[in-house]
């Protein structure tokens, strides 16, 4: 018999399953000596294997089970201290699992993101953690399904059909607004920057809803430049068109640092003449003077959760999509004061 005929006539595990009147999955459990199969079923499958002359190809099984023990992580900005803390949390969990992390920067652009995702797939990573770039197409879930590769969204989400590890941005914004209101502030501004994505929308919406809850004007949302030095130069924009905010909540701590410099140039004393709250509470919040009150989003914890979700997805690909949301906490320091002392 020729090699081609042998290949054509080779008994498969599906043949064994049909002969034993069980599913292919059950037959696979038997050949892998799984204790999950009952004795009667095991005997029936083993008898079918003997009758058909089935030979378990261990080499092929090893190839199917082979993993690279690497995971890819794609973030939009490696210069932001927040992402450094996020990656630190991921790395600790990845190390503990005996894996290696490959980090890629999307530059917050969908074309570059698509390119780095393709490279990670070519490198044979076991899974990917993705902080989606602003403007990521809505068909991300269908693409991931075609890849047959475990993927977890972190910080930002494009679809509910893929695992997501994030933070309750709206609750964090509510904490900030409520604290300022408790100090007597009513003219509260929200300074935003950067590309528009799910986290952007959730923070803006959280600010507006919190302001409405206290019957305050929700429309004081001011956009500032992306670079810290440019933010300082544009601090006057917060006071344009008759606006005189007594307190400012910032999209993140980078915006707070930029505005702090701008307020200094304007002769305003933070924590006395104007109150300032950051968001994310990265390490630099303690280094600023006065120390910055900021909403902590615990980036290390988000990183840990994202890795945990990915490892579970790798082990159990059929799990339903999950969403792990971390709580926020307002860390009160020195950059806010009661309105009466402003």
Automatic annotation (TrEMBL):
Q: Does this UniProt record's set of keywords contain DNA repair?
A: no
Q: Which SUPFAM superfamilies match?
A: lambda repressor-like DNA-binding domains (SSF47413), Periplasmic binding protein-like I (SSF53822)
| Domain (HTH lacI-type): residue spans on this chain | 11-65
- Which PROSITE patterns does the protein's record reference? HTH_LACI_1, HTH_LACI_2
The answer to whether keyword Repressor applies is yes
Entry-linked Pfam families:
LacI, Peripla_BP_1
One term of GO molecular function: DNA-binding transcription factor activity
Give UniProt keywords alphabetically. Answer: DNA-binding, Repressor, Transcription, Transcription regulation
PANTHER family hit by this protein: HTH-TYPE TRANSCRIPTIONAL REPRESSOR PURR-RELATED (PTHR30146:SF148), LACI-RELATED TRANSCRIPTIONAL REPRESSOR (PTHR30146)
What protein am I looking at? Transcriptional regulator, LacI family
Organism encoding this protein = Pseudorhizobium banfieldiae
Task: State the organism's lineage.
Answer: Bacteria, Pseudomonadati, Pseudomonadota, Alphaproteobacteria, Hyphomicrobiales
